[in-house]
Amino acid sequence: MKRWIPIAVIVLAAAAVPLLLNPTGYWIRVFTFTLLFAAMAQAWNLIGGLANQLSLGHAAFFGIGAYTSTILLLKFGISPWLGMFAGGALGGVAALIIAIPTMRLQGHYFALATLAFGEVARVIANVWTSLTGGPVGLSVPFVPPGFAAYSFKQLLPHAYIALIALIIVTAIFEVIRRGAMGYRLRAIRENAAAAEVIGIDTTKVKLQTAVISGVLIAMLGTLYAQVAVFFDPDTVFNAMSISIRVALIAIIGGVGTAIGPILGALFIVPVEELMNDLFSAGAAGLSQLIFGVILIVVILWRPRGLVTVIEALRTWLRGKGAQS
Amino acid sequence: MSKTSSTRGGINRRTALAGTASLIAAPWISSTARAQAKPVNIGVIMPLSGANAQFGINSRNGIELVADEINAAGGIRSLGGAKINLIVADSTSTPTTAGTVAQRMISQNEVTAILGAFASSLTIAISEVTERRDIPLLTMSFADQITGRGYKNIFQVVAKASALGKAQLDYTVAIAQAAGTKIDKIAIMYEDTAYGTAQAEGLRAAAKAANIQLVMDDAYPLGITDTTPLINKLRASGAQAVFPVSYLNDSLLLIRTMRQQRITIPAIGGAAGYVIPDFEKGLGEFAEGVLSIAPANYDLDTSLTDRFRKRFGYFMVHEALEHAVALDVLVQAIEKAKSAKAEDVTLALRGAKFTGGWTNAMTGGAVQFDNTGLNVASIPVMVQWRKKELVTVWPKDVAKGAAEWKF
Amino acid sequence: MSFIQAILDGLLIGGVYAVISIGLTLAYGVMGIVNFAQAEFLMIGMFVSWFAWAYLGLDPVLAAPLSFAVAFALGWLVQGHLISHVLKAPSVAQIFLTVGLLIVLENGALLAFGSQFRSVTTSYQTMSLSLGSLFVSVPYLIAFAMSLACGLALWWFMRTSWFGRAMRATAQNPMAAQLMGIDTALMYKMAFALGVGLTAFGGAVILPYVTVFPGVGGQFVVLMFTVVVLGGLGSVAGAVVGGLAVGVIQALSALFFPIQLQNLILFLVFILVLAVRPQGLVGASR
Fold this sequence. Notes:
Oligomer: heterotrimer
CATH topology of the largest domain in chain B: Rossmann fold
Shape of chain B: globular
CATH architecture of the largest domain in chain B: 3-Layer(aba) Sandwich
Low-confidence stretches of chain B: 1-36
Number of helices of chain B: 13
Distance between the termini of chain B: 53 Å
């Protein structure tokens, strides 16, 4: 019971933040994107952290989610709430299609094959103009505001939707991690051959994880589309700004832990924003350069993620408590 | 750390003077007078890093030139000499970031208007923010849907991509005809970006209207490093002229590969990579005589554009020129509105005709926005490389030299 | 005829792909590191060569050894001061360290050299040889010849020199190599520096037909990965096979499909090959 208290405090604090921010302003937008990227990294964490498969192609599912709900809204007037589930379903199918030829691949081969898959998805979105509108991109039309239509004048509801999404994805992550599936995934990670021997269908478990991860990030693609309002294939199918960034957030925070992606997003998104605010008016490239240096320093300092700082802090506090 | 183009001391002194003057003259307007002398914040969002960095930096140079000139000449007169304070930020190449930057400028810097952001996708992302916050956005991005969505706060100072593509074809046909050549077979090749596809669409429609056969119509991926397959296909196509729409690297590659394969048909570029100094630097003598469409060209009023050349050391490329015009027009609107409030400025921009100043360097010598926000006075021009310079050669009424058509 | 032309163009282009990718596979073979910043060294090589051309009047291709030397020195420092710290860290930390390096190098170049697109002009840039109705692009031919020479030099170095043999020993078994008195840290530096040097060399030889700007690496990064994975990660011979294969696949796909789909076809072939041979074309199964 006791360990629920800090979680409840964190959730309540996070829920209070948007109320303190200007509802049409800048910080609430940054906060919303931080939560969204945390949720995306958490979805990635299922396959990247639990199954230990470094996917660098998650932009494929993410983009499918963003495009599906937006196309359904544009062509048929279907609410993005429903479109989100359609996108999730398609994202899951895509994840399955990608997983079948790549599941056998080891380590870096898997990473680079998924990277190529992400690029395939981007090219398709770019070329299939009749469906996606091609390289000119899509604007989410502004429909009369209302919850059912997933249309709001302010960013405040978007911030809460992103927060709820993050909580749900994190809960799914924890349930899987603690459950039978998490146990099997750990067994495969430690020793795949031994796992087979004790009767774990390794392929099936990995496929399940990949599909759940793909469904979740595709659904988050809808949320992203609704906040960003405009996107093109290069935005949502981007290897660098989606696939690699999502993995980076989970890894900077602490891969395989529930808190890792949240820490990572709380670090990466605002820092990048701050660098842009402070330095991008000066010499071109400076803000990005400083961001890169910060990344390198953090990785050298905490190769296992920022989560180790919290662990160290906790041990230190406990030590102090024992002394007094 | 926003970039301030004026000296802070000057603003303070001016503010103080204005305040004192109004106190003496009429105490009841003192508060507004004090507010007016405040510098006017104008947002500048450009891709300052990534693949489009150079175009973003060129654009920023053009804007800074005009801002500095206006400030040096006493600022905005109808606001008691208020200075222009440019707030510059990098949009990166991600539209979502561009939108976030716009949101930041509106909320934190209380900008009167925003200029940006060269690439159409970035501009559209910004417009989604400015439209919801009722902030005017002035742009030289030329995608059709920028002013095609019925938005009230967007102003496009150049002709649209489809018009550009149409002019690219129509002008060429006219130039060839004047030289006694009839064109009936052409090839189109374009990068598969928003810019490339939109302009190709215009080319295609114009070719159909002019009864010209498209013997080749190929999109190719952005960042292509080997154009041999395209040129192999071009050689076999029997086209009399080729219309490539691309950024710099592809443009150099295409022209060089054509030379390698001894293809001598004329190439008529689609702006972007064909109208920057690096094109001539890269191709040397092979640049001579190459034609390109352009939304504007610096030789239409060199008394203005030479100031850019003097300060930055290269000719005033079209994106710099058009952004300079955009800022000039914006300041004219602020003067007219006698207010730095976004909604007053939007009102002053919409439907109005602006002349004088930098608009002299535009075709039509004016900027006039229609109800969608499109500058209807602007028509594209055909330019031709002559001794490291771009000469406007068509339409005849604005041309600075005769078009050469001998290939 | 167009078929033969495509194969010819593909092989010439592919030879260069091979050389720029060998470095990636070398660092992986010796240390097990996948370097996402590898293509940034291509950019550095191109810039060095461009400056040598612009200020020393050197032909960009002849400046290739200079590009190699600069990148080699830089690689030595990067390995010694950055990568060596994460050799024992989880492989994800290694990968993302190089992603950080990518961002730093690209934007450092933007700060140092500006955003202009820089291109060289050489006499042979617009020349080609005619073989019947076939065209052989001279800049492609020169780049291919230089790549071939560079590849042979590497092969000779790895076979005959003590360094080469020690490096191969380190790749096979670092523990045993260390016991044999080989300084593995030195070998790591050597492998990484040599690898990025080769990539920079490749950057110089393509300068006659590719424009350099700070973001140019982005045009090659996925391609380089495709080459090494297709051939088999860690295998130098694999990178050569992979490079030629990628060049030919690209050229042939442009013959039968819209060129817009060039990379789509390439990646689909790539994934298909991996599905059948998870260790790549040449790689031994681990």
